[in-house]
Amino acid sequence: MSTTALELHNISKVFGGTRALSGVDMTVQHGEVLALLGENGCGKSTLVKVLAGVHEPEPGGRLVVDGTEVPLPMPLGTSSDLGLCFVHQDLGLARPLTVLENLLGFAQEGASRWNIRWGREVRKAREMLRSYGVLVDPMAVVNQLPPVDQALVAIARAAEQLKQHRERTGATSSVLVLDEPTVFLPEEEVSFLFDLIRTVVAGGSSVIFISHDLPAVREIADRLTVLRDGRVVAHASMSDVTDDEIVELIVGAGAATKTAFGHGGGAPTDRAFDRTPGAGLDVRGLVGGRLTGLDLAVAPGEVVGLAGLLGSGAEDAPYLLFGARSATAGEITVHGRTLPVDRQQPALAVDAGLALIPADRRRDAIAPGVSVAENMMLLVVATFRRRGVLQTRRMRATADQRADALDVRPRRTSVPVGTLSGGNAQKVVLAKWLEISPKVLLLHEPTQGVDVAARAEIYRVIRRATETGMSVLWVSSDFDELATVSDRVVVVSGGTAVSTVEGSDITPEAITTAVYGAARATGESTITTAGAATS
Amino acid sequence: MSTTDVAERRGAEGAPGESGTPPTTKTRGSWAEKAALPLAWVVLFAVFAALNPDRFLSMGNISNILGSQSILFMLALAALLPSMVGDIDLSLGSIGGLSAILVAVLNVQQGVPIGLACLLAIGAGALCGAANALFVVRFRTEPFIMTLGTGTFFGGLIFWIANSTTIVGVSGTLSEWTYVRVIAGIPIQFYYCLLVMLLIWYVSTYTPLGVRALFVGQSRDVAALSGIKSDRIRWGAFVLAGVIAALGGILYVGTTGSAGPSSVGAFLLPAYAAIFLGATSIQPGRFNALGTGVAVLFLATGVAGLQLLGAQDYAQQLFYGGALVAAVTLSRYLRRT
């Protein structure tokens, strides 16, 4: 096997006047996991789409698969014949259907044309999933599976397609492309994915792993290729580079800061807060979701991190407080005004000065087809009215100012927000809520799918907003992040707050220790393996 | 932290059996949910039988329930196909009416043999379906408003062709082969409907094409991104729906021996009532053929029973309309859970 699994030479792509890729070379060896890294907008997605045949590269590029030259441009839909398979962030599963139907819908062979024998297909599907170590019932409806199982099913399905391809054609290699598969997974569950990826590699595939999650890359990848501004800036073995060097490669020399990535640095933890009860946010006896009675206080200007394992209830708190999901009991006090949480509704919450930035940005936080300006000004649109007429020009000008202040790229606020990268879209969401100067900001995984530079910007903007007395409740499974941003971290386990990490004790390690310690103490089933959080 | 924990968490292994039924009937909905509509039908039947045992249970009435509603049955099966792949076709009533008037005009006024006239009507139905597909699928428009438009257009064609009159005197052979002949006391046209229903059921449940169509209906983006030829499947659904609606029109001519400018169109709403009611049972949450069949029987029984009790014509509309409203509400609720 002197060949390589996949080689790209001199791939370029120009959109209009913008050069998305310039002369990219990349090589994937047989049986390796290659990490493809870079900020949002660096060209990763374009490169993947060239491989998938969605984009035609500029003339002069070459693609070699398993030693065989493949003519470019490659017609759409032929990539699977070359032994390439893609799993994107959205997984490509039909969620209202069962796992089995999802497997059958894409089977290229097997089931007869005129008579699907469901009993046999169930057994086959179960065996197939089991052979990849995925213990998921083929009869389960995808919607009802936890996100990690959905990801496992999608990857196993792709791996099986590649296996069938190898058996059918006698090819010795195939390439699985995983495009940010870990983004919507809690950190501690990512390790399940790694086991599966290792199985896939052992079965004879190579893997291209695209991710923002450096600890994950560190754990699973053999080598890395870093793209910046459409060019390859590095090929390296994982063992030859440190995390700091990788960050520097991704964001460019000089721009890299340690705090941007969440290591060290840390928030100023010596600030004094007005701890009068009811001055900021007070939560008493919150019951709902997995919470069984959460008590919590956040002073004006304070950032409180809420940490817990999956199932602890921490991730339910922002939604219950905001009335996005219904709580069964509890009281919330905001700046002296008390409300029963079981009657909370989003409209009331906004009136009370609460803001929620949910984890599922694409579904819950933006209207993708609506312009950046309108998304940003949604909550204050009435203030741009004069004599019953909406002053769109003034509104756009204000939006432009905000875009400038938050470094939203592109600066033009007339484009649909759905065309922005994850980091920039999140800045728009943040701007939208800061526009009403909320008294309390509730955040759930606010930097998922957000690149390193935008992440630092988001931290900075939130920190600045707290200077005017805004309280922040920050729920995240990224303990590095919590350590960076929090003045205090409350650990949730078994549905209640069990301990607090304060002041100079706040380190990722301390939070991790507290979270796992609490889970053990309350006898909660820790389904997790200590994941990347402890890095 | 051990592997057993993991296995337990992702457990749910085992339970589903290995028999030949499709997964949908196993994982979606409880038995009560699936059987609710058939049970409701039995209850409805029993209530009417108790209220009016002599006339309701007479052979003539049962034959009437099963036979006379064949036009509704056929039109519901037509409406089922686009709905299964995530579209909607509101022009099917007009397509059926166009087919009926074509059969009458060709046979009575042009002297075309009845068999050929029926074939031409079916061809016209296919053409209308293709026109719908062209605008909806090819030009990517909203099927709801588009087929409302094409349906009105086809309705205009009906008035034009019929010259706004009712045409009587269609060859008796057609009646013979639809309404007059009976098997086990039930007009033969009921069996045509059963046959079409079973065909749709088999293809949608036991063939890869059916699974692909399911994707197109439930997650069209996923289907497209997985290389399923969604457009081809949607074209097929529209064209076949046109053909089946034309069959409904032919049954209308056979049953009444005539065709007028307003005929099959009145069955469109009850047809949609039937498929939405059908989507609440057998495979809850999905439009399905067997559920549609049960729903047609339910509606037919309700209407026949009300008529025997002396209810006025408006009772039928109240019943159909009420059933559609209830069915849509119920299916929405089912989809959420």
Commentary on this structure:
The complex is a heterodimer of chains A (535) and B (337). Chain A has helices spanning 44-52, 99-104, 118-131, 147-169, 190-202, 214-220, 243-251, 258-261, 317-322, 346-351, 361-364, 372-377, 392-405, 422-434, 452-466, 479-485, 508-521, and strands at 6-15, 18-28, 33-37, 62-65, 68-70, 84-87, 175-179, 206-210, 223-228, 231-237, 281-288, 291-298, 303-307, 329-334, 337-340, 354-357, 385-386, 389-390, 440-444, 471-475, 488-493, 496-502. Chain A has 535 residues and is an alpha/beta fold. In chain A, the strands form five sheets. Chain A has a six-stranded mixed sheet with strand order 6-7-8-3-9-10, with helices on both faces. The two termini of chain A are 36 Å apart. Chain B is mainly alpha-helical and 337 residues long. Chain B has one domain: ABC transporter involved in vitamin B12 uptake, BtuC. Chain B contains 17 helices and four strands. Chain B has helices spanning 3-9, 24-27, 31-51, 53-56, 59-68, 70-84, 92-109, 114-138, 143-162, 172-180, 188-206, 208-218, 220-225, 230-256, 268-278, 289-308, 313-336, and strands spanning 167-168, 182-183, 186-187, 258-259. Chain B has a two-stranded antiparallel ribbon. The longest helix of chain B has 27 residues, at 230-256. Chain B is globular and about 60 Å long. Chain A binds chain B through residues 77, 80, 92-98, 100-101, 104-107, 111, 113-120, 122-123, 126, 134-141, 149, 192, 525-529, and chain B through 1, 5-7, 9-24, 26-28, 205-208, 210-212, 214-215, 218-219, 222-223, 225-228, 285, 335.
